[in-house]
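tool=predict chain=A
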Amino acid sequence: MEHSESSLDGIKKKLMDELSRKSSDISEILSLSTELSKLEKDTVRFTVDADHVSRLGLELVSKKETALSEIIKNAYDADADTVLVNFIHEGESSRLEIVDNGIGMSREELVNGFMRISTSMKKKEEYSQKYDRKRAGKKGIGRFAAQRLGLKLTVIAKREDDSRFQKIDIDWRQFESEKELIAISNKIAETDVDYFKNYGFNSGTLLIINDLRDSWTESQIKRAYRYTSELLLPFPISKVGEISAKKAIDPGFSVEIKTIMDGNPISIVDTNDMFLKHALAEIDGWIDNDGNGYWRVKSNHIKYDSGIKNYLTKTLTQYQEKEQNLIDGIAVKEVRNVKFKAYYFNQKGISHVPKLLSSAVYENLRNHGGVRLYRNGFRVLPYGEKFDDWLRLDLHTKTRTILPPVANQNFFGFVEITPNTHGYFEEVASREGLLETDAFNELREFVSSAILSAIVDFSYALGQTKVFAGEKDYVKKGKNTFKGAVEDLVESLEELENTPESVDDAKSLSGSLFEEDDKQHQGDTQGSRVVPNQLIEDIKRQTRYLIDKAEIYRILAGLGLSMAEFTHEVKFSILKVSNNLSKLQDTFSDKSIDADITQVLYAIDNLRSYTSFFEASFQSLTDKEGELLDLRKYVNEFLDTLKDTKHDDDQIRIETYLNGVDFVSPKAHRANFDSIIVNLYSNAKKAIYRAGVEGAILIELEENDSSVDMIFSDNGCGITNENKNKVFDEFFTTNTQVFSAPENQQMLGMGLGLTIVREIVEGLGGEIEIIEPRTGYSTSFHVSLPKADEKDVEDDF
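tool=predict ok
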């Protein structure tokens, strides 16, 4: 006790001496205060070892690629539209510089935000200040991401209204064990040096990371870039225009990564590498100063260039007139000097996007695809938004103006109205769109028609034999029969069965098997053997079993082909019914009839979603080689299909959880995975109906060292222990009629679904099993597939 009092007095004296000095050492004062607090009799406090920061950096952000992507995401959260990442090599030294033009940070924000561990800002402010973006960076990870990348960090930041820059220098090596975290100081200063002069930024943040912990390959840099792909939009960065008193129009977000070798910059990856260079075709169009319209389509994928065209061929009649040189050139009256550009993607066509990127590219197309409109550099809303069809591209796809898909989700594009553009283009009073003047309508018709004409031209160049629905010369290719292949196998087995049982028997049958001496005879027969009758019987029995099984699958395959043709035809019937019902709805004013028609149209939309999904799955079978199986992409597409197909009595909550980044399995037909998830979903749906509960499904994807796994869970009636070993057997089913359930929920199965799923999974080199259900669920299936080799994935990238 006396020793404690003596220590207490000693610390107090040192603290008083330090406080009385004119230039006190704040770090010493904090250290003494911490030591003093430990000697209190009735209270205790948590203290933090300085080494904790180092361990957090390496444990929270284990991969350098993740660290870099988190810093880029923080720039997005700071409302930047541009991020420049430079790996700089000067002689033997290297550093990493990351600069953005976001809102920057003041001294107060640096001290209370960046320098404060576990700040609650991102919890309190889920959306960014300027553009109202949903925050993408993980809470409190940014500073540790920088610590993961290098030993030294310099942070330079400036707000737009500030005249000076804030600068902090941090040496992570100071954060050693046995030191109090609060006692370690980092130098902060204000400076007049304009660090953004070479970038043209008025505000933002610059991170300079020295003494890098790792070397970087080009593939690793591209992987880090890919981790941020959901934030990137392949459109021009627009000027900032006010949409309300509170928020500005989001101009977009772009990232460019370079390596600078002794002052020589080398571009590694940018938005073009990520998205645009993988487009199937690139379309340019313009109206010149005389009112003549032109378009041109090029494709690096098939090395095609249409040349400059001055005619429209969006209909079969126009195309036939073009072939006879009877078509007129494009000429407009109200518009001059305007241009557009569109990048065309076709997910259902030939594979033209690397599999490693396809998930990011097509997710971006689903969410942001379309042709945007810019006026004097400013983005004009709502043109190009997800549900805006100002060019009628979705309508042309639905009405089958041409057969190749030309919906908004097939394009990243933009139209530019500049100060040199002639025509009456004025915004409406609400600043939401332009007045539909003659000039606007003329521009819209030109862009839409030019895009369709370019796709018609490109589709024929691609080798498509039928582009318009009215063409009559479309002939399907013949196919080998499954039955013929089975019969050939049976004949081979019969020949094996008739093979002589011994060499002597064979010799007696032919008169003289060999004409040489016995020695030569022995040499010729070396390695031959007599096939036992029992072995022949075993082969016959096993083969007959396989033939019987194959016959079942032949029937199912035939049914599948019929469904493919049926799906294709149903799409057109659905369209006709939908159009006629819409006309009928417009004709009648009776509200009760109108409500009934609306319900029918709703059901038709459900059918359209399902047929589109299955048509895409069937079409994948035409690619003999298959494709890298991107599980995240296929799960998302399946869930997109379900979103628009739920009835009022069919509300099943579906959640997904991703543990990893790349969920890619080796090449196969995507129809394999579609069959897996459709069967698991169908079984889950039946089990939920039998249980009579509010449905819940959880789909988890996990990336492991050698496998990519999917765990599919539902809260249905579950599987008894007795049946767990039977559910994968042929024709075993637990589905019975539930007389209390509505008629539309009476779903009876054949008992083949899980048998097929197991054989598909095993055929892909994987495994499927029933595991202990996840918490809150009654059944969990674990599907494990081999992980694609990184080399194959990178090569595909």
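Confidence is low (pLDDT under 50) at residues 473-486, 505-524, 736-750. DSSP finds 22 helices and 22 strands in the chain.
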